Amino acid sequence: xxxxxxxxxxxxxxxxxxxxxxxxxxxxxxxxxxxxxxxxxxxxxxxxxxxxxxxxxxxxxxxxxxxxxxxxxxxxxxxxxxxxxxxxxxxxxxxxxxxxxxxxxxxxxxxxxxxxxxxxxxxxxxxxxxxxxxxxxxxxxxxxxxxxxxxxxxxxxxxxxxxxxxxxxxxxxxxxxxxxxxxxxxxxxxxxxxxxxxxxxxxxxxxxxxxxxxxxxxxxxxxxxxxxxxxxxxxxxxxxxxxxxxxxxxxxxxxxxxxxxxxxxxxxxxxxxxxxxxxxxxxxxxxxxxxxxxxxxxxxxxxx
Length: 304
Prior knowledge:
Elements: H1 25-33, H2 38-49, H3 51-54, H4 59-66, H5 70-80, H6 85-99, H7 103-113, H8 119-134, H9 137-150, E1 156-160, H10 165-178, E2 182-184, H11 193-197, E3 205-210, H12 218-229, E4 234-238, E5 251-254, H13 265-281, H14 283-299
């Protein structure tokens, strides 16, 4: 018999399947794990503490992350009553989709949930807390990988629509201050996205911003899919691992929005870090262009 894969049926008696969760899937796993062997508890604990990431890991990856084995992962799935590993992962993804607040809903909530007397204090404190919690080991591992792709890139293409359009414009404007060959895709909201992307080559990089869940901008997904198929690296900055484009990214930088108000501080912080890192790596070249630009702005009476 060959190795069990993620879609292999494991539970034959469907009466043991966890069809209903009185307190949700996480409460179910937490309660069920108490009676499981120690190694299976390790798998359960990893899922409970890292469910946003676990929802997109295959069984081998989950075994590695939880410090167990491939066999232990499948024993755990069986013990929990899921018909296959794929079924467990799909359930986690379903929870992510249902519990992620869409940007427009988050914006409406912000208008009604915060007292006028302490809005500033609440927003500042929540943003600080969100920025501290987003600085995970995964982000620390992936950020240098993103810089390694962006630094030698022949051209950098940036795409960000709807709630991330302003951030994309900001990122483009700052990078263009000191670096050549930086392009903003769909800068005018036109339908010429593919006209621009047609010139992309394998030594270019697509830097995409997405903030949504469960709804995402189709044109951003089209860009990422097109770049991926052409073998062009994609750096994706997104607020959720449930993003439909997450599996397509070469490097994913997670910028969660865990605030009661609508906030882009996490996405902006990563963009600021990218700007600082690229500028520092090519300091002499960057400073030269900035000095030239400053002189031109004064010469042509644009600034003083």
